[in-house]
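Researcher: Next sequence.
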Amino acid sequence: MPSFDRRVWFLLFAMLVFRFGQGLFYPFSTVYFANFVGIPLSLIGVGLASLAVASVVSGLVSGPLTDRFGRKPMMLFALSGSATTFFLFS
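Model: Next structure:
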């Protein structure tokens, strides 16, 4: 197994922390959207299903891009995009 640079391990750790926070966000946001905003659970389910489909598609697209540009720029791009999306939720 090749030895990775310390910055790559830091990015990996940052992505794991982000995914953990994302995992906490979805159940609470579902309850919030259903109980306080009044969005039907079926529509929330469609939104979460579209998120799952988008994740699969982005995985298929990001593989070749990672081969072309490297893993670090793609990890930074993914984290930046996700952080921007969560900022826009507020």
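Model: The longest helix spans residues 6-37. Residues 56-90 form one domain.
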